[in-house]
Amino acid sequence: MSECPIEDTTWETIVRHVPIVSVDLVVRHEDGVILAKWNNAPARGRWSVPGGRVHKGESFTDAVHRIADAEISIDVVIKDRLGACEHQYDVADIDGVDGKYYIPIGFSVAAAEPRPELESDDQHTEFQIFKQPIEDAFAAELHPYVQTYLVDAGIIESI
Predict the structure, then answer these.
(1) Measured torsion, CA atoms of residues 42, 72, 114, 152, in degrees rounded to the nearest 10
(2) Domains of the chain by range and CATH?
(3) Are 76 and 25 contacting, i.e. CB atoms less than 8 angstroms apart?
(4) Cα separation of 147 and 15, whole Å?
(5) pLDDT single digits (tens) 71-89
(6) What is the pLDDT of residue 44?
(7) Which range among 5-14, 16-25, 66-75, 139-148 has the greatest average pLDDT?
(8) Do 49 and 134 touch, CB atoms closer than 8 A?
(9) Which residues of 42-55 are buried (b: 16+ CB within 10 A; e: fewer)?
C-alpha cells in the first residue's frame, strides 16, 4: 500500500477526537532488539519500538511490513502478535492539542537480514541494537509502554 497522506486540519481533528489505530514492532535481531530514539512528540528523546498508524483498508500484516520498511528499512518476519494496548500521552505533535491516544497492536518480529544497516529518519534521531539481556537499569528507564512490549515478547522480565 502506498502513502496515505492526511491534510493537517483533518489530522488535527483525528488527534483531538479519535484514538489512532497503529502497530508497534518489537524487532528481534540476531544480536538483540532494535529500538528507536524518537525525535518528535509525544515520545521525543525516549527509546521506543518502531511503529506507526494503520492506513484505511490496510491489514495489520501489511502495516507491519510497510512500517518496518519505512522506519528501519528492513524486511521482517512476523513471529507473534502481542495484542492490543492503550497508549495515552499528555502531549501531541500539534499545537493546542492536549494529548494523543493510540490503540496499537504489538507484534514481535524478526529481522530477515543478518546485519541490517540502521539509519535515522525524520521521526528518529537514532536506531540501536540492544544486546540481550537488556540491562535492568536501562529497561527501568524505558517508557512503561515499551517495557510492556518487551516483557510480552520475553525480552525482559517484569519491572
Answers:
(1) 30
(2) 8-115+122-152 (3.90.79.10)
(3) yes
(4) 24
(5) 888 899 999 999 898 988 8
(6) 81
(7) 16-25
(8) no
(9) bbeeebbbbbbbbb
**Cell output for 9:** 486540519
Does the pTM surpass 0.85? The reply is yes
Question: Which residue type, as a one-letter code, is found at position 122?
Answer: D
**Over the chain, what is the mean pLDDT?**
88
3-state secondary structure of 14: helix
User: Whole-angstrom Cα distance, residue 147 to residue 141?
Assistant: 9
Segment 100-107 shows an average pLDDT of 94
Q: What is the pLDDT, as a whole number, of residue 42?
A: 73
- Is the separation of the CB atoms in 27 and 72 below 8 Å? yes
* DSSP state letters, 99-147: -EEEEEEEEEEEESSSS-----BTTEEEEEEEPSSPPHHHHHHS-HHHH
Cβ neighbors of 18 (< 8 A, separation 6 or more) are 101
Reading phi first (left if > 0) and then psi (alpha if -120 to 50, else beta), residue 148 is in alpha
Percent share of the chain, pLDDT over 90: 42
Q: List all residues 6 or more positions away from 58 whose beta carbon is below 8 Å from its beta carbon.
A: 1, 4, 66
